[in-house]
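Need a sequence for this fold. Nothing fancy.
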């Protein structure tokens, strides 16, 4: 999300980095909304911000992680081109950024393709609901048994009083 905000505020620096890669690609791909690298970087920033917010809010988690992973691929190939660097220090820094971004891409792919984390929670909720229903049935049955026992006891008390009244007369 932070990268998305920074990109929306200042797309120029990222656009300068990706322009050499985007220009030839944009000429060949007709469905790109624009040939301007700065506009493409802004679109990427907006997508990054939106999907990051969805992921943070726990909405559409699988979709948002896969979209974030998809938007990292062009970023990975265009921004951290360590193989084109001549300066050893700059090359090492770009390689480090490249592998950090590649690791993030891998983590997003794992998170986006992993089984849903809410399935166990849903199963637990269903189990809890069933347990509540069984407890209610048990209480109801216990209530009926208690009522029968109370009536039986009341009948015995009444019978005993009648017998006692007969003996006493």
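Here you go.
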């Amino acid at each position: 999300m932070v990268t998305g905000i920074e990109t929306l505020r200042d797309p120029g620096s990222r656009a300068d980095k990706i322009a050499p890669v985007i220009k030839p690609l944009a000429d060949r791909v007709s469905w790109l909304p624009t040939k301007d690298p700065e506009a493409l970087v802004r679109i990427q920033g907006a997508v990054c911000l939106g999907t990051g917010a969805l992921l943070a809010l726990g909405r559409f988690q699988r979709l948002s992680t896969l979209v974030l992973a998809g938007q990292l691929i062009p970023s990975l190939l265009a921004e951290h081109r360590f193989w084109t660097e001549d300066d050893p220090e700059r090359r090492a820094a770009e390689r480090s950024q490249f592998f950090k971004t590649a690791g993030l891409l891998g983590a997003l792919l794992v998170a986006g393709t992993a089984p849903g984390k809410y399935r166990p929670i849903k199963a637990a909720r269903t189990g809890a609901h069933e347990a509540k229903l069984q407890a209610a049935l048990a209480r109801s049955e216990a209530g009926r048994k208690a009522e029968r026992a109370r009536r039986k006891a009341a009948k015995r008390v009444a019978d005993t009083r009648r017998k006692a009244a007969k003996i006493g007369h």
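For context: The mean pLDDT is 82.
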